[in-house]
Design brief:
single chain, 8 helices, DNA repair protein
């Protein structure tokens, strides 16, 4: 074999080797990308399932159906990736099927303790992120996304109002009008931030405003003020900065 032929063969062999190496790297990148996407879809299914289980007592059937359908869509993506499902994914799919066939129930009583309310508020915020993601990826249309986001926002406000109302009631029960007024006004402010609240929240707002008036009338005889009231007002002001981080 001539020198020229050997050189050509060597060049061809080198090119083939480079091409084979590049192809192997491309395959590996594709495999890693499929594995990454499988993890993302699995995690989303588990998170949606957890959110649905936690918020089910207070969310509407359309919201629960969105969660269920989003779980199923992530499950379909896993099937397309030919990725295996784990126990968490299977549980999420079971929940999704049950939620799609569930009979609607009246909402449960809202939590009025700070710790539980904070946990639920965090879940609501995460649910809002998932709704926006679903809209961005064309899994739900604009109208549905807008309705679901509004429901989530209203639920967040209702929970905040329930906490403030509970604190105001506790203050009133120990004859502390300044503290009761403080929390009632926080509940009033939370409701007033809604541009077009539904009728049930309008009724709650009217009731809270009436209670504010009643507490102010009880406080009126001590209009001159005492050191105790002044101290309570100061504590209320300091308390505001902390609670703004949570509600």
């Amino acid at each position: 074999m001539s020198t020229t032929s050997l050189v050509i063969l060597a060049i061809f062999t080198a090119l083939a080797a480079v091409g084979a190496l590049g192809f192997m790297r491309w395959q590996e990148q594709k495999r890693l990308e499929r594995a990454r996407m499988a993890v993302i879809h699995s995690d989303q299914m588990g998170e949606l399932s957890m959110i649905g289980e936690s918020l089910q007592p207070w969310i509407s059937a359309p919201m629960l159906h969105f969660i269920a359908q989003d779980i199923q869509q992530h499950g379909e993506e896993l099937n397309l990736l030919q990725a295996p499902t784990n126990k968490r994914c299977n549980k999420a799919l079971e929940n999704a099927l049950a939620w799609l066939n569930a009979t609607p129930k009246p909402p449960a009583k809202l939590p009025n303790q700070v710790k539980q309310a904070q946990e639920i508020r965090h879940l609501i915020q995460r649910l809002q992120d998932l709704i926006r993601s679903g809209h961005q990826h064309h899994r739900i249309d604009t109208s549905q996304a807008r309705q679901l986001l509004q429901e989530a926002r209203l639920l967040n406000v209702k929970i905040a109002v329930a906490v403030f109302d509970s604190k105001a009631t506790a203050a009133a029960s120990v004859n502390n009008p300044p503290q009761a007024i403080h929390y009632l006004k926080k509940a009033e402010a939370a409701l007033k931030q809604l541009s077009n609240p539904p009728d049930d929240l309008k009724a709650i707002l009217a009731s809270i405003q009436q209670r504010i008036t009643q507490q102010q009338e009880q406080r009126q005889p001590a209009a001159g003020g005492t050191r105790l009231e002044e101290g309570a007002d100061l504590l209320n002001a300091e308390d505001d900065s902390w609670k703004k981080k949570h509600f």
